[in-house]
Amino acid sequence: GGVGKTTLAYVMFENFRHQFQNHCFLRNVKEEHQKHGSDLEKQFFQRLSKEENIYLEGLGSIKDRLYHKKLLIVLDDVD
């Protein structure tokens, strides 16, 4: 840690996100997953699909909606 990897990743994300139909930058994934578990997964899919009310049981329909889109996904702090 400590060399600015997150900052660099975020700057790159900001520079390139306009080239994608949907984009998502999630920080502290490891810590957030330990604290919130599936809520992090829900947050991820909400950001990608740009929908507030999303049900993970409908993961197949989410996949269908995102399948043909150009996505930029950055997950920070993942083991």
From TrEMBL:
Source taxon at top rank: Eukaryota
UniProt xrefs under InterPro entries: Disease_R_plants, NB-ARC, P-loop_NTPase
Domain NB-ARC, residue spans: 1-78
GO BP terms in the entry: defense response
GO MF term list: ADP binding
Classification via Pfam families: NB-ARC (PF00931)
PANTHER family named among the record's database cross-references: ADP-RIBOSYL CYCLASE_CYCLIC ADP-RIBOSE HYDROLASE (PTHR11017:SF573), LEUCINE-RICH REPEAT-CONTAINING PROTEIN (PTHR11017)
Name by which UniProt lists this protein: Putative RGA
Classification of source organism: Eukaryota, Viridiplantae, Streptophyta, Embryophyta, Tracheophyta
